[in-house]
Design goal:
Number of helices: 9
Order of helices and strands: EEHEEEHHEHEEHEHEEEHEEHEHE
Number of domains: 4
CATH topology of the largest domain: Alpha-Beta Plaits
Strand order of the largest sheet: 2-1-5-3-4
CATH architecture of the largest domain: 2-Layer Sandwich
Mean pLDDT: 92
CATH class of the largest domain: Alpha Beta
Structural class: alpha+beta
Largest sheet: 5 strands, mixed
Strand content: 15-25%
Distance between the termini: 50 Å
Oligomer: single chain
Low-confidence stretches: none
Length: about 350
């Protein structure tokens, strides 16, 4: 922030602020702690300018401009809220809400699922003023166990389409028709498992209305307790994706990708996003098992189990030679695990017979 009228300053709500070349007015306002509403914006995606909620007044320009697609220029005088701007936003929200079956959806629907409801409340936008035709036809016939396709809550912001293309490169989701006949769809208007969808869940987590929602989490909406978020690292591979585990008491009810995760920046694979059932599965092993003298698996301590495994490996080497042992490590394990594995095999067992499952 500076009062010096340098080439990279503009006036934002009466305050002279700095900006970086190439920044949009929305980015400048966000960096200077102005709350500009939007429904089609995701900072991981190219600006779209579809919802028009982010409009601002720029002195010298007759009509309000979409701040997410308007590049900051030296000397601009920008107003981000108040008067006709807030009225415009409220009317837009009333029009959007009037088309919705449900403005309020369960928070377990997805990371961004509360955005529309929160904005309707913030601007005191009524839901019945423009009651009329509704767009979107839901697909309850899609049998996939992960993603709810509830298009009667769709507002055609296209965030799902764009995140699938720009972030994942799958291009599994597209748009057909126009106006009230607009529909989010997949190739040949089919079901997700027959499309290019990898069930990464990115469309679910960017949807601002719950039109695309997390079926696995919603199935646990009746689990009692307050929902808590715990930041941790996904354990399925060595990438190190940051996730927020949603829990109620001692039960996991869902997973949100960490949008600020350094390794994944909000992205997850199908396992990291949806495969958490094993945590509470009744058949999950809770203690090591070893075979007794009769070949039956019996509970054991970790020390006993590791001792038995070590004895088995050494017996194989002593009885059949060091080349009788061959190790295969996971190509998705972190470097530290790979190093430990090769050290065990080379130094501990005396063989170079070790590989991993990675192949170019």
């Amino acid at each position: 922030m500076t009062n010096d009228p340098s080439p990279h300053t503009l006036v934002l709500d009466g305050e002279t602020v700095s900006f970086r070349p190439g920044e949009t007015l929305f980015e400048v306002a966000e960096r200077h702690h102005r709350e500009i509403p939007t429904l089609c914006y995701d900072d991981r995606l190219e600006p779209f300018g579809g919802c028009r909620l982010c409009i601002v007044d720029v002195e010298g320009i007759r009509n309000p401009v979409a701040s997410c697609t308007t590049e900051a220029q030296p000397g601009m005088r920008v107003t981000t809220s108040g008067g006709s701007i807030d009225l415009h936003r409220r009317v837009l929200l009333e029009m959007v809400a009037s088309e919705q079956r449900d403005v309020e959806v369960d928070p377990l629907s997805g990371y961004a699922s509360q955005e529309l409801g929160d904005l309707v409340e913030r601007y005191d936008a009524g839901t019945g003023r423009f009651a009329g035709a509704r767009s979107g036809t839901s697909r309850p016939d899609d049998p996939n166990p992960f993603i709810l396709r509830d298009y009667e809550n769709c507002i055609s912001c296209y965030r799902c389409v764009r995140v699938c293309a720009e972030q994942e490169g799958d291009y599994a989701i597209s748009v057909k028709n126009r106006g009230f006949d607009t529909q989010i769809t997949v190739e040949f208007d089919g079901i997700l498992k027959d499309s290019s969808c990898t069930f990464c869940g990115q469309c679910v987590q960017t949807c601002p209305t719950g039109a695309l929602a997390d079926l696995k989490a919603l199935a646990k909406k009746d689990v009692p307790g307050e929902t808590k978020k715990t930041r941790t690292i996904c354990t399925y591979c060595g990438v190190g994706c940051s996730i927020d585990v949603l829990s109620r008491d001692d039960r996991i009810v869902g997973i949100h990708p960490a949008m600020d995760g350094p390794a994944n920046e909000g992205a997850l694979c199908v396992k990291g996003q949806f495969a958490f059932d094993f945590v509470h599965h009744p058949d999950r092993l809770q203690t090591p098992l070893v075979r007794d003298d009769h070949g039956n698996l019996v509970p054991a301590s970790w020390d006993d189990a590791l001792d038995k495994a070590a004895a088995g490996l050494l017996a194989a080497v002593n009885d059949h030679g060091r080349h009788s042992v061959y190790a295969v490590a996971s190509g998705r394990a972190p470097n530290e695990a790979a190093f430990t594995m090769q050290k065990l095999v080379r130094a501990g067992l005396g063989t170079s017979y070790i590989d991993n499952c990675s192949r170019a």
